[in-house]
Design brief:
Elements (H helix, E strand, L loop, with lengths): L2 H4 L4 H5 L2 H6 L1 H5 L2 H17 L5 E3 L23 H9 L3 H6 L1 H14 L3 H20 L3 H20 L12 H23 L8 E5 L4 E9 L7 E6 L3 E3 L7 E2 L4 E7 L17 E10 L13 E7 L6 E4 L2 E4 L2 E2 L1 H8 L2 H6 L2 H6 L1 H4 L4 E4 L8 E6 L10 H7 L3 H4 L2 E7 L6 H19 L11 E6 L1 H7 L3 E2 L3 H6 L7 H7 L4 H11 L7 E7 L11 H10 L4 H13 L8 H4 L3 H4 L6 H7 L1 E2 L4 E7 L20 H4 L6 E5 L10 H30 L15 E3 L1
Parallel strand pairs: 3-9, 10-22, 14-15, 14-16, 16-18, 18-20, 20-21
Antiparallel strand pairs: 1-5, 2-3, 4-7, 6-12, 7-8, 8-9, 10-11, 13-15, 17-19
Length: 695
């Protein structure tokens, strides 16, 4: 096992103790002290392990590199097809003698008799000359040549007089798209080199040969000053994420690093510092009014698009797909120091008090009041990073990213799961107050929770009505409501309210669907006498939590019959199969409009350590994971620690999310029909799979 893999490992699976202990062999052959040392070694390795999601490329990615020999000893040079075009028009010698005069001659011929091959040749020749100039350090000349290449490739793609001769099946057509994209990228690189790339500004670029006016505009939910800098996707290579999700078209995929706004704003705590977004830059050439061609345009609009809300645009009366990359900007953020400081799995397990200040909901994309939140809740000894493969894959589907936004919950996993569930209730309310205090964003009332392992218990608890049954676990004094329980307790108001909020659960009005993955709904055999003893030696619960329980127990000696749940229990204790919490959760009422789905891991070929002959994922037995009150239940062949990362699980989550949308849309049509007083219209136009933006 590599250090890279250790960081997200589950405590149970990492030590491989559950089935050995159950069989009795470990209890007879291993001393607690030696096992304690084993755990310490595992924790040290985990703390030292690092994960690299992204690495810089030695040479940036460029689809023209091979055809134009951009990195070869003889390059850059023009392609064989362009050489043939020059020969056909008797321009080969002229190009060798004086490239500038050759370019002028091509422009003259194109203005008299538009020819796609000549326009392509001019674009490619200019790009090659731009590369030569940049290599020589002549950046002004390079910028001029890239501008000529950019505007002429735009001319090739969109001029009306080439409509009948343009052939989208010709490899040259895609080569022109590459010329447009790469000449734009090289232009942007030179602008960034001079710190001149700022959306919302208008720039005049003067070279010895011509002058360009570039107006920059944002096309999305961002402000012009949203980002502090841009990085180029082509400079990086993904290392850790399983898939890289791209689309092909026009534009330059960028990594936009968000600037943290100044001033107090309650919503800013939901965005991590250093957050990076996917952006696609595209240059629109303004058609000249003097009758010249688009290739001679001196005015351009540089636009920055959000690929989450647009994957094609109307350009020169044509629908044009955007070139996008959703994965590399995500990997860039996951490698940032700000994200690594916030996501420490081991610290959250053994020192929960240190993570309390980082606890909460986090968004990796701008809040959208029209999209339904999918909140992902990690499990024991884990962090939100464990969801990144699922997040990356799910939002690669246009029909998913158009209607959903993905959030993540970070909590100290060393504390009992019911405390985490209580905190999540509080954090969900605080989030709603920050983003939608007027309760007008109806998408927030259709929330989907996805929980892995213990996170499934935290998620499911958001939808149950415990009545007074949790209270009765710790007290013989009747209390049918939170208010009555408060009246029976002595002590500081803060202590009393904190305890009562933990013991009386009410369903969240925002949650409509819960997906549990590898969740021990009836506890885990891993939480046995030995592991619970070890956990109490290692895990240090926040003093505030344990002191609250001790103070209330001391001040109310006749109220509590069992104070262990108030003062001693940690995450491992809370998962014990004999915990009185599980029977209450199983029979508790749930909100009538909430639906559950379940995904269970069962290893087809379990190892000896995982326990042969037992249906489980290596940590959670099938009998504990299965549920009767679910809309669907899928069994997959996967170990506990990676069950939520495999394709089959991710695709099942996608199916459930689409089912959620289908039911919501059907309900909307019925409601519209009732209001209209007529039959439903089967030809009602639904939202398209990809949001289309027209400017």
């Amino acid at each position: 096992m590599t250090h890279r893999e250790v960081h997200s490992i589950d405590l149970a699976n990492g030590l491989g103790l559950n089935h050995l202990v159950r069989g009795g062999g470990l209890r007879r052959s291993c001393k607690p002290v030696s096992m304690f040392c084993t755990i310490l070694v595992a924790l040290i390795l985990t703390g030292c392990g690092t994960t690299t999601y992204l690495s810089p490329r030695a040479v940036r990615e460029n689809p023209l590199a091979t055809t134009l020999q951009l990195v070869g000893p003889k390059g850059p040079t023009i392609s064989e097809r362009t050489q043939n075009t020059l020969k056909r028009f008797d321009l080969a010698d002229r190009y060798q003698e004086n490239s500038e005069l050759c370019f002028e001659h091509i422009r003259q011929r194109v203005s008299e008799h538009p020819d796609a091959d000549l326009i392509y040749a001019l674009s490619e020749l200019s790009y090659v000359e731009g590369k030569k100039a940049e290599r020589a350090g002549e950046f002004s000349d390079a910028l001029n040549h890239y501008g000529i290449s950019l505007t002429n490739s735009y001319d090739y793609l969109f001029s009306d007089d080439l409509e009948n001769t343009r052939n989208v099946y010709d490899p040259q057509f895609r080569a022109v798209c590459d010329l447009y994209n790469e000449s734009l990228e090289d232009t942007l690189r030179l602008l960034c080199r001079e710190n001149r790339l700022e959306p919302g500004q208008t720039y005049t670029i003067e070279t010895p040969q011509r002058k360009f006016v570039v107006r920059t505009e944002m096309r999305g939910q961002w402000r012009p000053d949203e980002f502090e800098r841009y990085e180029f996707v082509s400079d990086y290579e993904i290392q850790k994420l399983r898939n890289r999700h791209t689309t092909y078209g026009l534009g330059v995929p960028l990594i936009a690093v968000r600037r943290t706004p100044e001033g107090a704003d309650d919503r800013e705590k939901y965005y991590a510092k250093g957050l990076s977004y996917s952006v696609t830059a595209l240059m629109r050439c303004i058609e000249p009014t003097d009758g010249t061609r688009a290739g001679e345009s001196a005015t351009c609009v540089l636009e920055f698009f959000d690929p989450l809300t647009a994957n094609q645009i109307l350009l020169a009366n044509q629908w044009v797909p955007l070139e996008t990359d959703l994965s590399t900007p995500l990997a860039f953020f996951l490698d940032s120091p700000e994200f690594r400081k916030r996501n420490q799995a081991t610290e959250g397990l053994i020192k929960p008090h240190r993570v309390q200040g980082k606890r909460g909901l986090y968004m990796l994309e701008p809040y959208d009041p029209t999209r339904i939140p999918v909140l992902m809740v990690h499990g024991l000894w884990s962090i939100p990073m464990t969801w990144m493969d699922m997040f990356n894959d799910l939002r690669s589907f246009p029909e998913i990213r158009e209607r959903y936004q993905f959030w993540f919950y970070l909590y100290p996993s060393g504390q009992p799961f019911w405390i985490s569930a209580t905190q999540l209730r509080k954090d969900l309310t605080a989030m709603r107050d920050a983003f939608d205090p007027g309760r007008r964003d109806h998408a927030l009332d259709q929330m989907v929770l996805v929980g892995h392992s213990m996170g499934g218990l935290v998620s499911r608890m958001q939808t149950i009505d415990s009545g007074d049954e949790f209270w009765e676990i710790v007290s013989d004094v009747p209390a049918a409501s939170p208010e009555e329980a408060l009246s029976k307790l002595k002590g500081p108001d803060e202590d009393r309210h904190k305890l009562v909020s933990t013991l009386f659960f009410r369903p969240s009005h925002s949650v409509r669907r819960v997906i549990t993955i590898g969740t021990p709904h009836r506890g885990s055999e891993f939480a046995n006498d030995l592991t619970r003893w070890l956990a109490r030696k290692i895990i240090r619960l926040p003093k505030m939590t344990t002191n609250t329980g001790r103070r209330l127990a001391a001040q109310n000696p006749n109220v509590f019959k069992d104070t262990s749940l108030l003062t001693v229990a940690n995450a491992i204790d809370s998962l014990a199969p004999d915990s009185p919490i599980f029977p209450v959760m199983m029979r508790a009422k749930r909100a009538p409009d909430v639906k559950y789905h379940n995904i269970i891991g069962v290893l087809e070929s379990p190892s000896f350590i995982s326990g042969r002959g037992i249906r489980s994922d290596g940590v959670v037995d099938y009998n504990s994971a299965t549920m009767d009150d679910v809309e669907s239940e899928l069994v997959v062949n996967a170990p506990h620690t990676t069950i939520h990362m495999i394709s089959k699980t991710i695709f099942e989550v996608r199916r459930i999310l689409l089912e959620h949308l289908h039911e919501l849309d059907a309900d909307d049509r019925v409601a519209q029909n009732i209001r209209a007083g007529g039959p439903t219209n089967d030809h009602t136009q639904n939202r398209t799979a990809s949001t289309i933006v027209e400017h």
